[in-house]
Amino acid sequence: MNITAPWPAAAPPASRCAGAAEGIHSAAMDIPGADDETLMQAYGAGNLAAFDALYARHRAGLYRYILRSTRNPHQADDIFQETWSRVIDARARWQPRARFTTWLLQIAHNLIVDAYRRQPAQAGPQETEAALATLAAAEHEQPEQQLSDFQTRRRLQLAIESLPDEQRHAILLRLEHDLSLEDIADITGAPRETVKSRLRYATQRIREALNA
Amino acid sequence: MTAHPRPPHDEDDDLDLRALYRTLPRAEPGPALDASVRDAAARAAAADRRVQRERRLWHPGWGVAASIVLTACLFLLTDFGDQDVAGLADAPPVDAELARPPQAMSPRAAPPVRPEAPAALRRYAPARQAEQAEPAAPPAPAYRAQPDAAAGAALAPAPDVQADAKTGAAGETDARIAHIRELLQDGRRDAALRALQDLQRDAPGLALPPDLQGLLPPTP
Known about the structure:
A: Rna Polymerase Sigma Factor, Chain: A, 2 domains
């Protein structure tokens, strides 16, 4: 599903302007060019358009990270909504001490871990098949190539889903958001070397699955 | 999504995996989920605007202005606005003599005099005088409730004037009785009777001496 109607295309900010507090109260602020932190402060000041831009930037990546971590669409919806609810609740007291992306993913990661503790996620074959059924093949690909690519993507997805939780979280943050070791360590609350080790094991297992 | 610098670690050999990962289905939240999140954000923003509007209405400046107006109203409605009271600070010093409490009532001060027969005539009717005697006046208070120097000064000579008046009236009555007796001694009984009747008319309550009571004709 691809909805972009109410949300403008996510546009990365030109640069992080730490002192860009001016203009956040104005509805005529440069929303497309503002960074995440400025947008969050503007929303805390009552600018709903700033939230719309912020949501448009992060909704898809956040949702995929949650969905592939939980492997449960219903649970992913709940966690996604709860993550944004906490962002909304913290709008007034939020301070740009860390990057908004790190903070947002940290909220989602903690909610995912809490969900694991309450009810360990079990990826059912129906859900996995439903997720794989959404794979779209390019029309220009030949049937043999389509089959090969489909199998490769399916192996990748199955390999990711078969990883232990900590390794799966780390590799998803790396593959989905291109985060650094430090960012992943901040989000997951694990030491940097631990994250590095998890990424190494996860990468090795995925390669083994793809080459099988 | 915000772009971040490439992670500077030695596992940069996952470029092929990242490229392959991007070929996975681009799952996104559904429209209902988007609408739910945006509604929550809009409600929160609206609540913030309401609170900010209320804060603007109850700005501290309004409270200060209301306090000033209230104080001014109280000042105008109370004695602080009265020029007489407001000028107390500039008033001359209080006269100590006038401010002193009054002294105890002088022993010469007599009770108020009731209109009655002169004292010289009352001696002829001791029984009736006893009936008309005033009850004993209570002792004068040591201090009057409100000092009144003018009234106090006027009270002192009053008993003397009344006593003089009583003395003068008694002397006149005695002189008229003596005149009546002289007329009787001269044998002028009619003139004595007219003088006695004039005396009774002038002093209706007068008790006549026994020697003159027989002069009057018997009453029916």
